[in-house]
Design a protein that fits this description.
three-stranded antiparallel sheet; 9% strand; Arc Repressor Mutant, subunit A; 8 helices; mainly alpha
Length: 149
């Protein structure tokens, strides 16, 4: 039995794509961060770098790129700027000069206290229950892991 012409192309309708609401939601989510990050004089990319630095305190550039799913071309100017701002120190690795060792500074540690209110504010703007938020988190990381294989 032959499908109607409209049905054949339903897979190409924007409303049937999972990628579009993910894209639009991601874009909106980063926009929601804007006012909070402006107070800290950080971009979103600088903020996610700082989140890793607050957790690890010392990390290689390779590890950081892996955690954030970013390439060196994107990461390098961000790290240079955070270094200029006094939030981290960039040093060539003694074992491999191609790698940088990144170390959180005392000034970078202080910034953590200023950022503590951001995640709850963002969670509130999303309007999800704790269970919905946890489910979304699990599903997104599952999809990301599957796509990276």
């Amino acid at each position: 039995m032959k499908k109607k012409t409209g049905e054949k192309y339903d897979v190409l309708k924007l409303q049937n794509q999972v990628c579009f609401p993910l894209y639009a939601c991601s874009k909106e989510l980063v926009r929601q961060y804007g006012p909070y990050l402006k107070k800290l004089n950080l971009t979103y990319t600088q903020y996610i770098v700082m989140m890793v630095m607050w957790e690890k305190e010392i990390v290689s550039s390779r590890e950081l790129a892996g955690y954030l799913h970013l390439d060196y071309g994107t990461l390098t100017p961000v790290l240079k700027r955070l270094n200029q701002m006094g939030y981290l120190i960039r040093e060539r690795s003694a074992e491999d000069e191609r790698l940088l060792t990144l170390t959180l500074t005392p000034e970078g540690k202080k910034l953590k206290d200023k950022a503590i209110s951001i995640p709850p504010a963002i969670a509130e703007c999303m309007g999800l229950s704790k269970e919905e938020f946890e489910s979304l988190y699990v599903i997104l990381y599952k999809a990301l892991g599957n796509m990276e294989k």
